[in-house]
Amino acid sequence: MNKRILKQFALFFSFLLVFVNLSFIQPQISSAETLDQAVTIKAIDGDGKNVIDTKAVEINDGDTAWDVLQHVADEIDYDEFDYGIMINGINGINSDWDTYQNFWSFIVNGNSASVGTSAYEVKHGDNILFWLTDDMDANITVTVSAMDGEGNPIIHEESVNVTQNSTAYDAIVQATKKQDVPFDVAVDSTFFTFINNVGDVELAENQWWEFLIDDQSSQVGVLSHQVQPGEHIQLRVQSFNDGSEEEDEDPDNEENDEDENDEKIDEETNENDNNDEKNNEEKPTPEKETPSKKLINQVSKEVDFLANHVVANDLATAFGDEWWVWGLATSGNSVPNSYIKSIEQVVQENEGEFGNVFDLEKVIIALSSSGVDVTNVSGVHLLDKLAEHSGLENPLINAAIFALIAANSGQYEFNEEKENELVQLILESELDGGGWAFFGSKPSADITGMALIALANYKDQPEVKAAIDRAVTYLSNEQASNGGYYDEWNGGYTSETVSQVITGLVAVGVEPTSEPFTKEEGKNLVEHLLEFKTADGLYSHVLGDDESDSFSATPQAFLALSTYKNFVDGEVPPKPIPTEPKEEKPNKNGKVDDTDKTKTPKEENGEEKPPTKKEETDKEKTDNKGDKLPKTATDVFNMFVIGLLVLVVGFVFFMLQRKWKQE
Q: Domain named Squalene cyclase C-terminal: which ranges (predicted)?
């Protein structure tokens, strides 16, 4: 009976901890379904802006392009004639032949259709584009080729003409038609079109068609890449190691032999570089070591896949998508302008006053990673808002951590007093033996990883450097034999913890695949993170779970892998520089010396100007001492209630334990 109560309590408390952590993570859930017969469709205006975003539409025999357009468009302006339908406008964007000589062009698989929308019967895999244009001959030429796994040509290099705004997929379709090569695709409701096979190539279970542009692996899918004149669109069969013993033992497998040689060289290099560390296991080296070529290639492919996943599913387009934005920008990809616009709208509406300090911190980090100057977002200085936020008056450890990450996310000048205060708070929160925790006296690997990110910019300070070294030692000693970190309250071995540790170690210059972080089973941190990958290419929360988690596990894994890839490549994403630096800098108290500004404004004749409406409003908001009233839209009360709830539950559990012992 007592054990059952204990389990119920543990389950409840685990849920409570997850709830607290949700203050920094927001969900982004999407569902995907492969459609039996389907097409993709999109509409753009004369500037190339989307009138209808790319959508997958399931079709039946006999359906026409007109049927598909009606399915996705909110509004269609058209004229019906004996020969068919003429489209004048889509979703309020109309053509004007008399003034601009433009029209809605109907394009299928990169070529202008020879019949109208109501006459063209769509086929599985068709890619339909409606384009408002004034150019009837807007074509470009690209080259397409495809090779199997042994280098045999499946599509010989073929020059094809496609219309402007066509995709790599359109070019491939045209090339397969010209050379009469079978082309098999699948259309997914969320991820759109995938290439199953080209020609009659027999693909093994661990093989797929890789998409390249001018010999460079593409970071987006064939339907997302808009071709440019002269490009070489390439498809090649690639393989990944499925871990079978037969492949490892095959002496004829040259690729595996090369990988094994690389790993042996890496092991010898690591052994030579770490002789000092072997004599003192409690001090992991912060020196950068060389990971295996095989692992680097795998990480690169994972980053490319996840970047494509984010773009294809519009996961980084609006306020609330900050984790995805952070990962996408770190991977070297451009963040959609729609995300920046959505933040500008939010800031315009709330004037930069975010009730939850975590929301403000996330936005600052995401915008800075996107190259946006956060000192002027719709005229609001977000870093000043952060320094003044009541959530940092007596912050929780994770709020202080992310405040410092935000403050150092660009080449900004942050309130010096607040900055020093936050650094000291984190240092004073360090536990015996090194590391940090959200609560309690036992360090937490994920909070420790986050703290390393926050302190990385201050490691030239002796006190900070010592705390970092102790934290790295703790993380090495705490790492389990399988390469991960076990936490019963989080559900066991979780990917989020590994992601935070990888990101934290990289921030302070420690190689996550080095000897101190490679345990008995031969798995290092990065290899362990890759074990959380599920069948759909995303990442699970708990090790061994077959279901992926787009809520927190996958976006954090994306960020960790992107950060690690940059670390290995020696690349550091540039930090934005304020475009309009403030002329007046805060003094030691974090305030601008505005003595002269307190003088009453005068008219030219020496008389006082009447107060403006804004000045009258500001005056009404002050108390009898002339000080502005404090902002009350904060999360302090919410956190107080949560803390009180945790204390109550802990007290109840303590009393139950005493009762059980007496019985």
A: 441-520
| Residues above pLDDT 90, as percent of the chain | 56
The C-alpha atoms of residue 425 and residue 143 are separated, in whole angstroms, by 59
Give the separation between CA 455 and CA 434, rounded to whole angstroms.
14
Q: Looking at the structure, do residues 148 and 200 belong to the same domain, yes or no?
A: yes
Cβ neighbors of 73 (< 8 A, separation 6 or more) are 43, 52, 90, 91
pLDDT in tens, 566-611: 998 886 555 665 544 333 333 333 333 433 333 333 333 333 333 4
Q: Summarize pLDDT for 412-426 with one digit per residue, the tens.
A: 999 999 999 999 999
pTM assigned to the model: 0.49
User: How wide is the angle at C-alpha 314 spanned by C-alphas 309 and 315, nearest 5°?
Assistant: 75
- Note the pLDDT tens digit of each residue in 280-301: 444 444 444 567 788 999 999 9
Could you give phi then psi for residue 167, rounded to 5 degrees? -105, 170
> What kind and span of H or E run contains 72?
helix 65-72
Contact 82, 118 (CB under 8 A): no
Give the single-character DSSP code of 319: T
pLDDT band at 655 (very low <50, low <70, confident <90, very high): low
3-class DSSP state of 462: helix
- State the first-to-last Cα distance of the chain, in angstroms, to the nearest integer: 12
Both 142 and 129 in one domain: the answer is: no
The first and second tokens of residue 17, run together, are 């901890």
Number of domains in the chain: 3
Same domain flag for 120 and 145? no
On whether the CB atoms of residues 484 and 443 are closer than 8 A, the answer is no
DSSP state of 489: G
Write down which residue in 508, 538, 573 finishes a domain. Answer: 573
Distances (CA, A) of 115 to 39, 122, 321: 18, 12, 42
- Both structure tokens of 286: 């912060």
Q: Are residues 502 and 553 located together in one domain of the fold? A: yes
**Looking up tokens 């703290």, which residue turns up?**
451
Residues 71 and 162 in one domain: no
User: Which pair of tokens denotes residue 522?
Assistant: 């031969």
Residue type, 653: F
Q: Which of 174-183, 331-340, 563-572 has the lowest mean pLDDT?
A: 563-572
- Claim to verify: residue 143 and residue 119 sit in the same structural domain: no
Count Cβ atoms below 10 Å from residue 521 Cβ, excluding itself. Answer: 11
